[in-house]
Amino acid sequence: MPRKKNPTSTPQHKTPPPEPKRRGRRKKATEPSAELPPAEPQTTPTPEPAEPAAEPPSPNLPAPARGPDLAAAEEEYARKYPGTDFVRGSLAPAGAHLEFGQKRTIEIRCVTCGATRRLATSDLHHVAQCRACKEQSRRAVRKQKSRPESDG
Prior knowledge:
Blueprint: H1 68-80, E1 85-86, E2 105-109, E3 116-120, H2 131-146
Antiparallel strand pairs: 1-2, 2-3
């Protein structure tokens, strides 16, 4: 009895061949998903009358009202890092500032010049200065290291 050449070539089993596997990185989607509703036309908001800028809270005044978990966490950071000068009431929840991703952020005052700087709480253990003062101190250390030491 002769063998059939290809049993899948019969009309009852005809299916398209599978897609070949793609190798390498996936490309980012450039088309918006069909599930999303069409974007609404953007309108420019009407400017509201400007209010006078509020003064920053004094370190002697109590912190502004906010969640008890943030207030307790801020007090914990103050105890854990006594050499860092925190701006009271500046602890923000995770994701509040997009440039830091999903990290809590807090404002500190520079120990050299007193300027404020916002940073992630995960960086508190090694940051105490603003960026300008940190760069100046790095330059001074480099300059001192580059000088030849004289025996005398």
